[in-house]
Structure formats: structure tokens, C-alpha cells
Design goal:
It is found in: Cell membrane. Pfam families: BPD_transp_2. This is Branched-chain amino acid ABC transporter permease. It comes from Nocardioides oceani. This protein is mainly alpha-helical. It has a domain of 198 residues. It is built from 11 helices and 4 strands. It has a two-stranded antiparallel ribbon with strand order 1-4. A two-stranded antiparallel ribbon has the order 2-3. β2 and β3 form a beta hairpin. α1 crosses α9 and α10 crosses α11. The longest helix has 31 residues.
């Protein structure tokens, strides 16, 4: 029974990590209609920025803020200098650019920060909590991860549903020509979308790195699992991203704990194939309007 509980709690924390990254993918999709495959190395770079601040003797929270700010700026710069020149063309061009950026950022990070493994601090304990004299597989940092992802989801929902800025971002993504005719500054909205998505990605990188080892490739596997979580919940739904991350994290935790860790990647592929076959729009996809 304790093993079952610990496996489920481990999956909860892992799922929230996937959900954080899925939220970044959902945000960039809703605001620009592009899947950013460079999200992971962008988050990795900002995590190393935080590590530089920590190594300089400053507090974790100052490093946390520095990573988020650098993520915001990096997203805006990438949109302006890399993505903006191909806007208006086939969407596949931007996707290919993000794949190229994935490679470039990896190489630059290896040159600037090195390839060795480095320890990243955590603001809260990374030992299991004591409940009734029993240690469970939920740490203080795990609780912080859950709360951070839920707060981020709530803020994104409020942004897209209740603010004019969110409406302008969605209009710029779905139909930029009409949005321009209505007075929306599409370029600024796309830059803002990339910047906010990069900020959320930086948060995901910090949550993944907390209390563990980091190196330039430490987030590569998260690209796959975060993408599966986003597709599972629906690329248009922040709630779907969180639910998809939770379902995926718990499922993969049980596969690892009861079947074998070597089958985790295969299980994620099977889940992705099932979702694309049975419900391509994701679990939280809205029904398409019928045309008469």
C-alpha cells in the first residue's frame, strides 16, 4: 500500500513538472499558433543564468527572479530576430527555425557554461515529508512545484479569458490580417506571446532543476513528455495541459515502478498514439462548430 501511495505521489510531482512545460507550449500555441521545439534549451539557458547568480553568492529567490526575467527577454529577442523574418510564410518555416535554435542554444550553452554536471539548489527540502511516522514520496519542493504550476495555470486562464491583452493575442494568432484592420498591433502581441511563453518555460526549467543536477541537455527528455502532455490535454487549453501532465506523470510513474523504467519512453509514445487516434484535439478540445 505504501509503495502504491509513493508511486502515485511521485507521479503527481513528475506530472506537475510536465504540466509546467506543457503550459509553455500551450501559451506559445495560443498566442502564435507555433509549436516551439526550442522551448527546452531556452529554459535551460535561463536556469544556468540562475545558477550563475547563486554561484555569485546571492539568494535562491534572486536567482529565481533573474531566470524569469531573462526568460522573458530571451523570448522577445527570439521572436524579433529569429521568428519575425519568416512570419507570414508557411508555419513550417518557423517550426524548422525552432529546431535549428534548439541545436544552436545547446552548442552555445556547452561553450559558455560547460558540459559538466552541476548541482542546482532547492528553496525547500527535497526529503520526503513525515506523515504519522511514515515518510512519503512528497517533498517540500514537490509541494512548491504543485502550487507554482496551479498558480501559473490560473494566471494564464485569467489572461486569455478576462483581459483585452489575451483577446488581442489570440486574435493576432488566428487571423493577423483582420486583427490589424481592427487596430491590434499584431507584432507586439506576437512578441508578448513569445516572451510570456519563454517565462513560463523558465519556470518549468527551475522546477525541474531544483535539488538535482543540471547540464546543457538536462531538459531534452522533457520536450517529449511535455509535448505529449500538451497534446493529451489539448494545445488550446491551459487546464488541459495541467491535467494532461498529471495523467502522463502518474501513468509513467506506475510504468516505471511496476513494469520497468526502460519502458517509460515507449509508454509515452503509446499514449501519444492513442490520443492522436481517438481524440486528436486532446481531452479538453472544444467541439468544432458545424457548417450548414
Amino acid at each position: 500500500m505504501q509503495q502504491l501511495l509513493n508511486t502515485a505521489l511521485g507521479g503527481l510531482t513528475l506530472g506537475m513538472v510536465y504540466a509546467a512545460f506543457a503550459l509553455a507550449l500551450v501559451l506559445i500555441w495560443r498566442s502564435t499558433r507555433i509549436v516551439n521545439f526550442a522551448q527546452a534549451p531556452m529554459a535551460m539557458v535561463t536556469t544556468f543564468v540562475a545558477l550563475v547568480v547563486v554561484d555569485a553568492g546571492h539568494s535562491y529567490w534572486l536567482a529565481f527572479a533573474a531566470a524569469l526575467v531573462s526568460g522573458l527577454l530571451l523570448g522577445a529577442v527570439v521572436e524579433r530576430l529569429v521568428v519575425r523574418p519568416v512570419e507570414g510564410g508557411p508555419e513550417i518555416n518557423a517550426v524548422i527555425l525552432t529546431l535549428g535554435l534548439f541545436i544552436v542554444l545547446h552548442a552555445l550553452a556547452a561553450v559558455v557554461f560547460g558540459n559538466r554536471y552541476r548541482s542546482f539548489p532547492a528553496p525547500f527540502g527535497v526529503r520526503g515529508l513525515e506523515v504519522g511516522g511514515t515518510t512519503i514520496a512528497l517533498t517540500g519542493f514537490g509541494v512548491f512545484t504543485v502550487l507554482a504550476v496551479l498558480v501559473t495555470m490560473g494566471l494564464l486562464l485569467a489572461l486569455f479569458r478576462y483581459t483585452d491583452v489575451g483577446l488581442r493575442m489570440r486574435a493576432s494568432a488566428f487571423n493577423p490580417e483582420v486583427a490589424r484592420l481592427l487596430g491590434v498591433r499584431v507584432g507586439r502581441m506576437l512578441t508578448l506571446g513569445w516572451a510570456l511563453a519563454s517565462l513560463v518555460g523558465s519556470l518549468a526549467g527551475l522546477l525541474i532543476a531544483g535539488g538535482s543536477l543540471v547540464h546543457p541537455a538536462y531538459m531534452d527528455s522533457v520536450v517529449v513528455y511535455g509535448f505529449v502532455a500538451a497534446v493529451l490535454g489539448g494545445l488550446d487549453s491551459p487546464i488541459g495541459a495541467v491535467v494532461g501532465g498529471l495523467l502522463l506523470g502518474v501513468a509513467l510513474s506506475f510504468v516505471s515502478g511496476y513494469v520497468g523504467s526502460q519502458l517509460v519512453a515507449l509508454a509515452a509514445l503509446v499514449i501519444l498514439m492513442l490520443v492522436l487516434t481517438l481524440r486528436p484535439g486532446g481531452l479538453f478540445a472544444q467541439a468544432a462548430a458545424r457548417r450548414v
